[in-house]
Each structure stands twice: as structure tokens, then as C-alpha cells.
């Protein structure tokens, strides 16, 4: 395993509902090295999505420290966080969130378009489409693709800027068994071929099994998932 990609210390996140307080993250600590696949198990409501949103700088903890590639995310401006997300983090969600009016190829290039770096990434996008056997589908709109194809496109979009870390939130939750297996095989192949680091949340024990480190959310903290 390589360098530290992400390091958190004592993350706390609490939500209030009237006079009641719900402690979602309770002094949670996590250190991630490059090349790891970390799976985080937990039932709905356990705080997995909240954790991933904070690790991806889409949300802020109430307290604690979050360091990504040596950068203290708690001290970065909104502009700096946006650049960090675009350059160094990739996101894969349960629902693909592809833009319906753009082709599959354009959707994959969207992070590069935002970064004014489209031309430099077109060759890589072609290679990625070939890598997942979708070259003949790249000019199709999302509505013309199957569910499994749409999710593979979403994975390519997450990879286009060669991020240090990909965060996947219940990525198989909306897929049938066969497509779920294909997606997990793809994650393992990407990890093996490109040393890509993943954090994957799931409530499915079979998905959790692909982790090189398997964790479980218990009372707002992470424990080894045995």
C-alpha cells in the first residue's frame, strides 16, 4: 500500500429534530492508503451517506479533522474544495445522475469540461470506453442505455480526472444481481489495473466482501467487519 490519501480524526456530526439530537458520527476516525478498497457496511440510517458526503467535502462535520492528500479540508475555501473535488475525488452514486441531454461520451467528459480540459481528456475517455466494452455506445444518450451501461458510464465519469480516491455510495443498490456482479468485478479490475483507491458504502454483505479492508458503522464509529 502507498501513501495516505485521506485521514480523519474524531469526526462528529449531529442532527437536531426539535429537542432530540441524533449523533450520526461519533468521534469517527479513518485513515485510507492509496490502492485500498475500503467497504463500509451498515443498515439504512446508520450514517454511511453522511460519512461519505463529509469525506467528499460535500458536507461539513460539526467538529474533527479531515485531511485529503495532505490538505486540511477544514481550512479550505469553497473554491478550493470545489477544485479538490473535481481534480482528486470521484463520485459514484446509487442513481447514476447522468445528464439526459448529453451523450455518454459527453457525460464522462463533464468533469474535464468543468475544468476547461476537455481536449486533453478525450483520448483517455476513448480508452476508458474501450476498457469497459462500451465504445459502440458512447454517442448514445443515457435514455438509450441499459441500467448497467448507465452505471458503467457513471464510473468512467468518476475516473476521467484520474482521482486519488473514488467514493461510491450504495453503487449496486439500484441494480439487478447480474449487473451488480459486473460492477463489482469492474471495481476490482480498476483497483488492480490502476491501483485506484475506493471507499464503498453498502448494506449488502456480498458487496462488502470485495474490500481489502472491511469496516462496519456501529454507533457512529467504524469497526472491523468480521
Helix proportion range: 25-40%
Radius of gyration: 17 Å
Number of strands: 10
The largest sheet, given as strand count, sense and whether it forms a barrel, is: 6 strands, mixed
Overall pLDDT score: 88
Number of helices: 7
State the low-pLDDT regions, or none: none
Based on Cα principal axes, name the global outline: globular
Span between N and C termini? 21 Å
Description of the molecule:
This protein is α/β, with parallel strands linked by helices. Helix content is 35%, strand content 30%. The chain is built from seven helices and ten strands. A hairpin with a 2-residue loop joins strand 9 and strand 10. It starts with a strand and ends with a strand. The model has no long low-confidence stretch (mean pLDDT 88).
Architecture blueprint of SSEs:
Layout: E1 4-17, E2 20-33, E3 37-41, H1 48-55, E4 63-68, E5 71-72, H2 78-88, E6 89-93, H3 104-114, H4 118-131, H5 147-159, E7 165-169, H6 177-194, E8 197-202, H7 205-208, E9 213-218, E10 221-224
Parallel strand pairs: 3-8, 3-9, 6-7, 7-8
Antiparallel strand pairs: 1-2, 1-4, 4-5, 9-10
Features:
226 residues, alpha/beta, 7 helices
Summarize the model shown.
This protein has 226 residues and is α/β, with parallel strands linked by helices. It contains 7 helices and 10 strands.
Amino acid at each position: 500500500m502507498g501513501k495516505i490519501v485521506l485521514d480523519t480524526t474524531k469526526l462528529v456530526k449531529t442532527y437536531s429534530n426539535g429537542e432530540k439530537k441524533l449523533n450520526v458520527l461519533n468521534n469517527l476516525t479513518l485513515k485510507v492508503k492509496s490502492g485500498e478498497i475500503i467497504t463500509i457496511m451498515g443498515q439504512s440510517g446508520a450514517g454511511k451517506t453522511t460519512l461519505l458526503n463529509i469525506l467528499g467535502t460535500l458536507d461539513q462535520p460539526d467538529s474533527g479533522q479531515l485531511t485529503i492528500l495532505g490538505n486540511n479540508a477544514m481550512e479550505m475555501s469553497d473554491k478550493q474544495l470545489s477544485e479538490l473535488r473535481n481534480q482528486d475525488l470521484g463520485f459514484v452514486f446509487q442513481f447514476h445522475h447522468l445528464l439526459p441531454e448529453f451523450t455518454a461520451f459527453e457525460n464522462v467528459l463533464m468533469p474535464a469540461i468543468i475544468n476547461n480540459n476537455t481536449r486533453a481528456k478525450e483520448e483517455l475517455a476513448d480508452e476508458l470506453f474501450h476498457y469497459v466494452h462500451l465504445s459502440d455506445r458512447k454517442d448514445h444518450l443515457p435514455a438509450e442505455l441499459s441500467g448497467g451501461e448507465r452505471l458503467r458510464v457513471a464510473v468512467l465519469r468518476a475516473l476521467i480526472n484520474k482521482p486519488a480516491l473514488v467514493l461510491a455510495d450504495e453503487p449496486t443498490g439500484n441494480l439487478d444481481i447480474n449487473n451488480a456482479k459486473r460492477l463489482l468485478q469492474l471495481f476490482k479490475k480498476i483497483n488492480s489495473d490502476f491501483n485506484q483507491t475506493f471507499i464503498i458504502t453498502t448494506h449488502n454483505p456480498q458487496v462488502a466482501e470485495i474490500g481489502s479492508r472491511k469496516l462496519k458503522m456501529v454507533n457512529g464509529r467504524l469497526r472491523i467487519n468480521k
